C-alpha cells in the first residue's frame, strides 16, 4: 500500500475515535447549516412565538414569557458582577453544566451544538460540571425558560423536549442565563418599537414594561435572538410590537445569535 495512503487511513481512524466533548464542548468544525436545519424547515415561526406556545401549559410563574422570578434580587435585572459567571485566570468565562438523562443522545447533541456556537465567537466556555457549586442544570420541564444571569447553586434551564429543541431557542435561553434580557424591554426601546397595548390582555401588560437595562452602548437590534416577534402575547392576532419608524422592518428571527448578540456578550464579559 502506498505510504501516504496508509498515513491517511491512520489519521482518519484516529479522528473517528476521538471524543468530541472532553472537559469542554468543542464544536469549531460543526457546520452552521446543521445547527439551524429545523428553523429553515419552518420559516414562519419566530423564536419568541415558539417559546410562548411551549410555555402556555407550564405551571411555572414566568416573567416576560420565559424568565424565572429572581430569588435573590428584587427586580428583573442583571447589571452587577454578582450575577455574571466568573472569569478564569486564562480569560475564559467558565459555565459548568449538567444535562438531564431525560434527553436522548441526539437531543443532547443538539443542545451541545447550540453551546458550541458561544465557543466559536466569545470567551464563554461551557464545561461539564465536576464539583462546582454554581452550575446550569439543563432539564426538560414544562416549557422553555431560565433565570436571568447566574443565580447561584443549581440553576435550572428548561428546554422542553416537545417544543423547545430548536437551535435559536436554546441559545435564547442560554443568553438569559448569561444575564441578557429581551430586546423589546430595553430602556430605550420607545425610539425603535411601538407597543400596542390594546392588542394584549391587560394582565399581560407587565411583560412589556421597560427595564433599567445595561445596553452596553450598542444599538437597538431588531435581529437579536432576544427580540420577540410582532404578535407576542396578542389576544386578537394583531401586532403587539411594531417597529418604528419603519413598520415593515423584520423583527423576531429563528436562527441564532446576531452579530450584536455576540458583541454584547464580549462586551459584558470583557472577552
Automatic annotation (TrEMBL):
<feature type="binding site">
    <location>
        <position position="176"/>
    </location>
    <ligand>
        <name>Zn(2+)</name>
    </ligand>
</feature>
<dbReference type="GO" id="GO:0004222">
    <property type="term" value="F:metalloendopeptidase activity"/>
</dbReference>
<keyword id="KW-0378">Hydrolase</keyword>
<keyword id="KW-0732">Signal</keyword>
<feature type="active site">
    <location>
        <position position="173"/>
    </location>
</feature>
<dbReference type="GO" id="GO:0008270">
    <property type="term" value="F:zinc ion binding"/>
</dbReference>
<keyword id="KW-0325">Glycoprotein</keyword>
<dbReference type="InterPro" id="IPR034039">
    <property type="entry name" value="ZnMP_hatching_enz"/>
</dbReference>
<dbReference type="GO" id="GO:0006508">
    <property type="term" value="P:proteolysis"/>
</dbReference>
<keyword id="KW-0645">Protease</keyword>
<keyword id="KW-1015">Disulfide bond</keyword>
<keyword id="KW-0968">Cytoplasmic vesicle</keyword>
<dbReference type="GO" id="GO:0042588">
    <property type="term" value="C:zymogen granule"/>
</dbReference>
<protein>
    <recommendedName>
        <fullName>Metalloendopeptidase</fullName>
        <ecNumber>3.4.24.-</ecNumber>
    </recommendedName>
</protein>
<feature type="binding site">
    <location>
        <position position="172"/>
    </location>
    <ligand>
        <name>Zn(2+)</name>
    </ligand>
</feature>
<keyword id="KW-0865">Zymogen</keyword>
<keyword id="KW-0479">Metal-binding</keyword>
<dbReference type="InterPro" id="IPR024079">
    <property type="entry name" value="MetalloPept_cat_dom_sf"/>
</dbReference>
<feature type="signal peptide">
    <location>
        <begin position="1"/>
        <end position="18"/>
    </location>
</feature>
<feature type="domain" description="Peptidase M12A">
    <location>
        <begin position="74"/>
        <end position="271"/>
    </location>
</feature>
<feature type="binding site">
    <location>
        <position position="182"/>
    </location>
    <ligand>
        <name>Zn(2+)</name>
    </ligand>
</feature>
<dbReference type="Pfam" id="PF01400">
    <property type="entry name" value="Astacin"/>
</dbReference>
<keyword id="KW-0482">Metalloprotease</keyword>
<keyword id="KW-0862">Zinc</keyword>
<dbReference type="InterPro" id="IPR006026">
    <property type="entry name" value="Peptidase_Metallo"/>
</dbReference>
<dbReference type="InterPro" id="IPR001506">
    <property type="entry name" value="Peptidase_M12A"/>
</dbReference>
